[in-house]
Amino acid sequence: MSEPIVALSGAATDPGLRRSLNEDSFLAVSPVFLVADGMGGHDRGEVASATAIDEFRAFAGRASLTIDDVRGALGRARARVDGLSVGSDAGAGTTLTGVVIADVAGEGYWLALNLGDSRTYRLAGGRLEQISVDHSVVQELIDSGELTAEDAARDRRRNVITRALGAGSDAEADFWMIPAAGGDRILVCSDGLPGELPAERIRTILAVESHPQAAATRLVHEAVLHGGRDNITAVVVDAVAVARRGGASPEGGADADDDVDSDTLPREPVGGMA
């Protein structure tokens, strides 16, 4: 098999019920599956997220990417997004999260990356796991034991992020290399989705909708129905077959393992913005 992972994907996005502008952008073309959630006011967030995603479009159609490919695209994206703020008091920035397909010694891997509080999940063996770790004030407080996960969902700081592309941040992205298995289902989403739907509901929808496009559409639709306080984007990716040195692993194979503004905001010391 020439491709380390044969993937099938679907994507959906909606501005939600409180915003006229959708500042989310996404790319769902193998081997790249990414979501960006822009910030900066007016149309600057929309431009920032689209600019970040645009740096990855040239990879469309390749069989796989390396971490150097991804680091290079991130560096170019950062420079372009930083350029949007030149001569302006308002900084433009964006989150970026998702997976790209990687080949490690002839085997298929998910190379996951994250900056900000958009999220990447994997559904495998009926279990939903959040791969990415939120770069946010409330996540830091949870990690330090100062805030519970339940309280974090209602905390006014829940949309304040600590890393971004642009917005005055030069923080590096997190990366994870995850062995893929046939039957894996990846969800990449902006924070508007888990902001409206609990993890168990997300897991149920991913489990019952057989086609990734149907799953993405339903996730976004239900998030809108549950409040739609922010822009909502979902990209769903299925591993139909995965390269293994001993042969491909087919899908399902034995080794398939309130009133608070909800827009994404950079933390003030990072972005210099309120």
SSE blueprint:
Layout: E1 5-14, E2 24-29, E3 32-39, H1 44-54, H2 67-83, E4 93-94, E5 96-104, E6 107-115, E7 119-124, E8 127-130, H3 137-143, H4 149-152, E9 160-161, E10 165-166, E11 174-179, E12 185-189, H5 199-208, H6 212-225, E13 232-242, E14 249-250, E15 265-266, H7 268-271
Parallel strand pairs: 9-15
Antiparallel strand pairs: 1-13, 2-3, 3-4, 3-5, 4-10, 5-6, 6-11, 7-8, 7-12, 12-13, 13-14
Helix pairs in contact: 1-2, 5-6
Keywords:
15 strands; 6-stranded antiparallel sheet; 24% helix; alpha+beta; 274 residues; 7 helices; Phosphatase 2c, domain 1; disordered C terminus; 7-stranded antiparallel sheet
Question: What this model shows, in words?
Answer:
By secondary structure, the protein is α+β, with helices and mostly antiparallel strands. The chain has a single domain, classed as PPM-type phosphatase domain (Phosphatase 2c, domain 1, 4-Layer Sandwich). It has helices at residues 44-54, 67-83, 137-143, 149-152, 199-208, 212-225, 268-271, and strands at residues 5-14, 24-29, 32-39, 93-94, 96-104, 107-115, 119-124, 127-130, 160-161, 165-166, 174-179, 185-189, 232-242, 249-250, 265-266. The strands form 3 sheets. Strands 2, 3, 4, 5, 6, 10 and 11 form a 7-stranded antiparallel beta sheet that branches. Strand 2 and strand 3 (32-39) form a beta hairpin. The chain starts with a strand and ends with a helix. The model is unreliable at 254-260 and 268-274 (pLDDT under 50).
